[in-house]
Write a structure and sequence with these properties.
Elements: H1 6-11, H2 16-29, H3 34-37, H4 50-62, H5 66-109, E1 113-116, E2 123-126, H6 137-151
Length: 152
């Protein structure tokens, strides 16, 4: 848990602190970015704690530099939202890749029939389940479903 001095706790509303945490995270990761150089208060610090960060924002408010703060926070929020979108897309692609392997293997197993020519007349059974005859109507309905799933 992050502890702040009493004057900082009373200087900001409870809705502002989470926003400042997100923007501080952006500032901390992208300290060499050009957006930070636009906010002159940060130029004097190369390392910044969260408390220092809040003190600088409070100082900017007192100096009536609200437009600089707003620009910095808006930029940081936009970049944080873009990163979140990238993580969501990555997670969806990873999930689909993991599912795709198992699902594709299962679907293509329905096209593999084992032929037993020693028996007269020769019979074909599904290699995955020898109880299912490849000439039966039940197998043909499974194959129709498997073909549709291949395209899905």
């Amino acid at each position: 848990m992050l502890f702040l001095s009493d004057d900082l706790v009373h200087a900001f509303s409870t809705r502002e602190i989470p926003t400042f945490r997100r923007t501080f995270s952006y500032y901390d990761k992208d300290i060499s970015g050009t957006d930070n150089a636009n906010f002159a208060l940060f130029e004097e610090k190369t390392e910044l704690s969260f408390s220092d960060y809040l003190y600088m924002i409070q100082r900017a408010r007192l100096e009536d530099r609200q437009s600089e703060i707003s620009h910095f926070i808006d930029t940081a929020e936009a970049k944080a939202n873009a990163r979140q979108g990238e993580y969501i897309i990555f997670s969806l692609l990873l999930f689909s890749f993991i599912i795709l392997i198992g699902t594709s293997s299962t679907i293509f197993e329905y096209f593999q029939c084992a032929s037993f020519e020693e028996v007269q007349p020769a019979v074909n059974y599904l290699a995955r389940d020898y109880l299912l005859n490849c000439g039966s109507s039940r197998y043909k309905s499974y194959v129709a479903y498997a073909v549709v799933m291949v395209f899905v």
